[in-house]
Design goal:
This protein is an alpha/beta fold. The protein is built from ten helices and eight strands. The protein has an eight-stranded parallel β-sheet with strand order 2-1-3-8-7-4-5-6, with helices on both faces. It comes from Rubrivivax gelatinosus.
């Protein structure tokens, strides 16, 4: 008899950069496939179905209208993401959303929040990113919605995005832990404090270490907690991950990132994942995609030391 798979994973590509300020993240899903994401996960006993790529409107590359760039297109993509992610969760599968820019987390996490409401589960979101992504149209002149997803999920944004999951707000800020933050606009910083987001910025990591950071971020998880990780590749230091549109120096090193992922894996609670903002147009020989796959592998059991499986 074949052993039962440890996880049943569905890969969902969302090839769009419609919410970003730089073109190229639309090629991210294919870069992760080229870096052998499916085979890598299968080598750890994971059953993987690649659902292919979602479809949506093209990027019109227009200036902001009433504070938002490409709002109609962003809504269409996020609705498609929401429906696809929710369908996988309803089948008892773990969705891995391959972005695409980080505006797509609105659809992904609103679907996860909806699933948790339906299943009576608690939700914890780990937001691994260089940016807080807590802007609103009043706080940023760019209008790029990839800088707004956490604010939208917490109820601060255009109605069409705030209500995608059928419940507004989709998230309580107290359910979110942000890790690796090092670039926050002044108005956004005030708003983050007002809303009570728990942020472990790079100074905290420098002072306290990644181990203590992750112990706090993962505290109080229990058997009824759905853990969602939204991993923006610009979380990593650009020296090791150049293939992103918004490089911010001073991010986690390779070993710090590996420890972060290994400690998430140790909880046994990971139930959904976004991998966002990988931009092959700015990468070097697919280096950043290969690193992203390496870190995803650590979420599924690869470890530096031999440890007994939990």
């Amino acid at each position: 008899m074949q052993p039962e798979p440890l996880h049943r994973v569905s890969l969902i590509g969302a090839p769009t950069d419609v919410g970003a300020g730089t073109r190229g993240a639309s090629m991210g899903p294919e870069a992760m496939r080229v870096a052998d994401l499916q085979a890598t996960l299968e080598s750890h006993g994971v059953e993987v179905l690649d659902r292919g790529n979602l479809t949506g409107p093209s990027n019109p590359w227009q200036p902001p209208v009433e504070g938002y760039r490409h709002l109609d297109q962003v809504v269409a993509w996020n609705q498609a993401v929401h429906d696809a992610v929710h369908a996988e969760l309803a089948q008892g599968r773990m969705p891995i959303l391959l972005g695409g820019d980080h505006c797509l987390a609105i659809g992904s996490i609103s679907a996860v929040a909806r699933h948790c409401r339906e299943a009576g589960k608690r939700l914890r979101v780990l937001w691994l990113d260089a940016h807080a992504d807590f802007n609103t149209s009043l706080l940023t002149p760019s209008g790029n919605i990839h800088g707004m997803p956490v604010a939208c999920l917490c109820g601060h944004g255009p109605q069409e995005l705030v209500e995608i999951g059928g419940h507004a707000p989709a998230l309580n800020p107290k359910w979110v832990r942000q890790i690796g933050i090092r670039s926050v606009d002044p108005g956004e910083k005030r708003f983050v404090h007002e809303m009570g987001l728990e942020v472990f910025d790079m100074r905290f990591i420098d002072e306290m270490g990644m181990r203590h950071t992750m112990e706090l971020a993962l505290a109080t998880l229990d058997a009824n907690t759905h853990l969602h990780v939204s991993f923006d590749v610009d979380f990593l230091d650009p020296e090791i991950a150049p293939g992103v549109g918004t490089t911010i120096p001073g991010g986690p090193t390779y070993r710090e990132a590996q420890l972060c992922m290994e400690m998430i894996a140790d909880t046994g609670r990971l139930a959904s994942l976004d991998v966002m903002e990988l931009n092959p147009a700015l990468d070097l020989r697919n280096k950043t995609a290969a690193l992203a796959v390496d870190l995803i592998e650590s979420l599924f059991g690869k470890s530096t030391l031999m440890r007994a499986p939990r």
